[in-house]
Amino acid sequence: MKTLILAAGMGKRMNSKYPKVIHEIFGKPMILWVIETAKKFGEVAVVLGHKYEMVEDKLSSDVRIYIQKKQLGTAHAVMSAIEFVSKDDNLLILYGDVPFISYETLKRLEKVHLESNSDVTILTAILENPSGYGRIVRDDKIKIIEDKDADDEVKKIKEINTGIYIIKGRYLIENINKINNNNAQGEYYLTDILKFTEKISTVITENIDEITGINDRIQLARLEKRIRKKINEKLMKEGVRIIDPDVVYIDPQVKIGKDTIIYPFTFIEGDTTIGEDCIIGPMTRIKNSKIGNNVIINRSEVEKAEVKDNVSVGPYARLREGTTLDTNVKIGNFVETKKTVMGQNSKAQHLTYLGDATIGKNVNIGAGTITCNYDGKKKHPTFIEDNVFIGSNSSLVAPVKIGKNSITAAGSTITNNVPENSLAIARERQINKENWVLKKGGNKNANNKK
């Protein structure tokens, strides 16, 4: 089965300089959620229009693109891509602004379509307030009447057309050009494709969120909030404790183990996995990262990092891309890491930057330590081997290697490799000039009256 995604609309109500379908929901353009689901069925094409270059830039090369130069309705959009369809295909019609249509529902739609041998199979829903939607009218045969063309009796019907169909390729090719625009909108409605057959099936979905389209920023926020609530509730049923679900924000792909506690004002985003018995938050953001078991992350930022079991992070730490913390590592307040690997039982507790560093086991990084990894043109590595003690306020000028069991004295600027079992001291000798201040007329600041 092929899928055609209609995404040519301007989205005026978004009041944006960007096309509606590239506005993000859960950190990803909404059209990409649709494409991700559609690819599970086979080839995918999209119909673009308004500022199509911006949308095209977000799409992978395996998605075929067709341009609808004038937006004259849904049937006209399909006409723009009719060469995508062959007579032997079944064509699934989806929409770029309906991001959460589920694979399971579409699979059910496909099953009914194939078993019934229908020309058209429609996904429908029952709404308490169906205003604005086309109604499913079941007389001698099934038909769809748009809200603006409906009389009072039709408007009482609560079963609505979601706009999602599977259509036989042969039937579509033979009939798409028969559709006219004699309606209140003056548009070519794809719903009129039903006029030429009685072989029509329907499938009702009870999940309203999955067929909800987004037209403005208010709807975007409301839908995202409803989906987040479902995500949090599902995780809690699976054994995760979320202290206040109203102020915890977790993306759909995230996986969290049992007995982990999530504190308020925590954001867990993207492709993130968190193990069991962790304490996350408050005020923490984790994105596209892998977190082990028994990990504590408090008031910190973690992105594209791997944190193994029994690690403590924070408060106010930042783990950047390429960070790997082995078991029992401790990262304390105001510590930043990037492209850094820390071995078992190592720690950097205070006020430290570690970039492009490989750090062994049982290493202590003193407060105020910096790996000086950038020379203004390119980055250089720092290697700190097992059982090293880095004194406070050390600057390690890369490329440099600190050998096993070595110590750097506090306040040192290390520019050369340090052999194993050595003490490295790289600072000026302290000189005290006694009575120098008195000879120069005293300390003026000490004499000032407050």
Topology:
Layout: E1 2-7, E2 24-25, E3 28-29, H1 30-38, E4 44-48, H2 52-56, E5 64-67, H3 74-80, E6 90-95, H4 103-116, E7 120-126, E8 135-138, E9 142-145, H5 152-155, E10 159-168, H6 169-175, E11 200-204, H7 217-237, E12 241-242, E13 248-250, E14 255-256, E15 261-262, E16 266-269, E17 273-274, E18 279-280, E19 285-287, E20 290-291, E21 296-297, E22 301-303, E23 306-307, E24 312-313, E25 318-319, E26 324-325, E27 330-338, E28 341-342, E29 347-355, E30 357-359, E31 364-365, E32 370-372, E33 382-384, E34 389-390, E35 395-397, E36 400-402, E37 407-408, E38 413-414, E39 423-424, H8 436-439, H9 444-447
Parallel strand pairs: 1-4, 1-6, 4-5, 7-11, 12-15, 13-16, 14-17, 15-18, 16-19, 17-20, 18-21, 19-22, 20-23, 21-24, 22-25, 23-26, 24-27, 25-27, 26-28, 27-29, 28-30, 29-31, 30-33, 31-34, 32-35, 33-36, 34-37, 35-38, 37-39
Antiparallel strand pairs: 2-3, 6-10, 7-10, 8-9
